[in-house]
Amino acid sequence: MTAQRVCALSDLEQDAATRVEIDGVAMAVVLDSNGVVHAIGDVCTHGDISLSEGFVDGETLECWAHGSAFSLRTGKPLNLPAYEPVPVFAVTIDGDDVLIDPAVKLEVN
């Protein structure tokens, strides 16, 4: 599979998450305060809650329901109750297009 356009970079709000879906894979796309675009799995590993409805703080996305914060870089939970990471996807910016390949999950330590 190749990367697909999910939105325009200009459509993203800084420090906010946007839900996108490619071939049934839901992702939360975030433009952080440093201008970096991240894409992580949209479903909190603690419960079936959309992370894109959560709160962005720096390089973290916090689940609104139970407060688990996930690293936008690694997908790892930074606090309980979640203890399993969410997937992190490679993002490519081409002009004003945000491209993501859902088959390419980053392995970040």
From TrEMBL:
One Pfam family it belongs to: Rieske
Keyword Protein biosynthesis tagged: no
Sample GO molecular function, one term: monooxygenase activity
Keywords: 2Fe-2S, Iron, Iron-sulfur, Metal-binding
UniProt KW Endoplasmic reticulum keyword: no
Domain Rieske: 4-100
The protein's name: Benzene 1,2-dioxygenase system ferredoxin subunit
